[in-house]
Amino acid sequence: MASVAVNKFVEICNYLQDPIHVARFQNFCGVKGTFPEKRTQPDSGQPDPDCPGLRQRVQQISSEDVGNGDAALSQVNGKQEEDTARPDGPTAAETARAKPLRRNSLTGDVGQEFLIHNKFLFYLFTFGTELGNEMFFIVFFPFLFWNIDALVSRRLIVVWAWNLFVGQSTKDMIRWSRPASPPVVKVEVFYNSEYSMPSTHAMTGTAIPFCLFMLTYGRWEYTFLFGFSLALSWSLLVCVSRVYMGMHSVLEVITGFLYSLLVLAFFQLTLEKIDNYYMTDHYAPLVIILSHVSLGLVAFSLDSWSTSRGDTAQALGTGAGAALASHVNYQLGLLQDPPLSSLPLTLPPITTGLVLRSVLRFVIGVAVLLATRMAMKAVTIPFLCRLFGLPSDDVRQARQQMKIELPYRYIVYSVVGFVCVCFVPVLFWILNLA
């Protein structure tokens, strides 16, 4: 009985992992590839000899899978041609040619041109995938901290950093490559050479909105249905966008979603204790530095350099800097959380003055963070290259070594995190913008 259940589970997983489901969903959403008419074999994820940084799938594609892939590709292409040929199908005026917005992070490949028959869905899912990117969180966390709720923001940063570490480390242990193309259309190629199981976009796109809901429900005045619906919509948009982009199979997205809920279950019990420890314990700074650096060393030791691994170190560095700043704020009494007697909090009336002050805080704060990042980057990389005897004229090549990339990410982004949480609020107080 147990073996039957296991076999059925494996069968379902293999079915959900099949890239043909990704291709069919893309076709349904109006995405059409410009693949050559004839091919001998699908992309099996094997590395190009000229591109040693490319990832390699542990599970090789069998000759039977190749035959099935050819048949599936013919089926999808036939459906696309049929849709285009129909009188009520998309016209030339409604069809747009496009290429991925960013180059492949490891190979520099610009990707293949594709056709967009539904521009609304293209823009919707492009926005959705950005909700799971690091750049969004770099903007979102400071805005939340400076303008809405500092406690919620600093706790979200803890969850974000640890969630990204867990997801990326799991990827490097499982080592599955991205869905094969063809039949999948690569609407995005930036992370195409990275491992894909589980989807860390799905993990962060689930952890952040649901953790935000978990932290603010009862603390802020709103209905349960509104908060839950917003979190679920955010999560689903990010998850579905990764299938639309051709970056993940259905199985990888579902796994990322469920994995993130498991991480949240852990933080539901410990997040308040972790936050209080970071602020109040005298040994917290030492523990913060050692724990975050150790996690970064573990992440970098699992496999060779990659952009996503650098992003993990960046998140851990930001988390360390923010935690250290929270400790300093608490010890010096610089930034106090609202008393429990004031809960639940309510949004103040939206006035022109309030909006202008919020925008001004955000613009000044971001300008300070960008200047800090620029200055730290200009100093850190040449210093590390000289320290380890490496040429500093090729920054991209130098940063592909752990002894450069890991300390660079930690030094630069821990300072950025510290400035965001400690220095910028003090600057607002000096400028009478607090």
> Roughly what is the average pLDDT, rounded to an integer?
81
SS strand fraction: under 5%
Helix content: 55-70%
Low-confidence stretches: 39-69, 84-89
Distance from first to last alpha carbon: 64 Å
Major sheet description: 3 strands, antiparallel
Shape: globular
Structural class: mainly alpha
Number of helices: 14
Helix and strand element order = HHEHEEHHHHHHHHHHH
Q: From the alpha carbons, calculate the radius of gyration and give it in angstroms.
A: 23 Å
Q: In order across it, which strands form the biggest sheet? A: 1-3-2
Question: Could you give the count of β-strands?
Answer: 3
Write the layout of secondary structure elements.
Layout: H1 2-17, H2 19-28, E1 31-33, H3 63-85, E2 96-98, E3 114-116, H4 119-130, H5 134-147, H6 150-174, H7 200-216, H8 224-244, H9 250-280, H10 284-301, H11 307-332, H12 352-387, H13 395-398, H14 402-430
Antiparallel strand pairs: 1-3, 2-3
Helix pairs in contact: 2-3, 4-8, 5-6, 5-12, 6-7, 6-9, 6-10, 6-11, 7-8, 7-9, 8-9, 9-11, 10-11, 11-14, 12-14
Characterization of this structure:
By secondary structure, the chain is an all-alpha fold. It has helices spanning 2-17, 19-28, 63-85, 119-130, 134-147, 150-174, 200-216, 224-244, 250-280, 284-301, 307-332, 352-387, 395-398, 402-430, and strands spanning 31-33, 96-98, 114-116. A three-stranded antiparallel β-sheet has the order 1-3-2. It is globular. Mean pLDDT is 81; it is low at 39-69 and 84-89.
Summarize the structure.
By secondary structure, the chain is mainly alpha-helical. It is 65% helix and 2% strand. The chain is globular and about 65 Å long.
